[in-house]
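Need a sequence for this fold. Nothing fancy.
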């Protein structure tokens, strides 16, 4: 059994973080006779698992659900998380391409005043073209 100070140092998180995990129901902690928190091996394993899921960018509510699932059910969450990260990567690549384009070519021409096109719709059109180029390029890379 370890006290909160020792577990905090071991885990590399604050005592408040450990208390928060307990408050959120992610971590069950025993109490000593003096009402101080004491952590057993199971609690340490749970802290490790929580920190691994946090590194995977799961929110605490999702982590709470993950902790209760079977390995097969967790795989579904992992697959969804991978897809979410892939989408974020594409979004960031599009943003980088947009910035590079402006850097090289200058600010794109805005739509004519009476064209019926808004500034936002023009930017969306540019972004979608760039996204198509990026996703098609990645699809070609995967096929090679």
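Here you go.
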């Amino acid at each position: 059994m370890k006290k909160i100070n020792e577990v905090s140092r071991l885990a590399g998180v604050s005592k408040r973080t450990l208390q928060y995990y307990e408050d959120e129901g992610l971590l069950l902690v025993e109490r000593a006779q003096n009402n101080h928190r004491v952590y057993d091996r199971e609690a340490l394993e749970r802290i490790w698992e929580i920190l691994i899921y946090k590194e995977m960018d799961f929110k605490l509510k999702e982590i709470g659900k993950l902790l209760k699932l079977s390995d097969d059910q967790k795989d579904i969450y992992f697959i969804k998380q991978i897809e979410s990260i892939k989408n974020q990567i594409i979004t960031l690549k599009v943003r980088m391409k947009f910035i590079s384009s402006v850097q090289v070519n200058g600010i794109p021409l805005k739509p004519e005043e009476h064209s019926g096109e808004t500034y936002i719709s023009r930017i969306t059109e540019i972004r979608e073209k760039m996204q198509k180029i990026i996703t098609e390029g990645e699809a070609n890379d995967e096929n090679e």
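For context: The helical segments are 4-11, 15-23, 41-55, 60-66, 71-105, 119-143.
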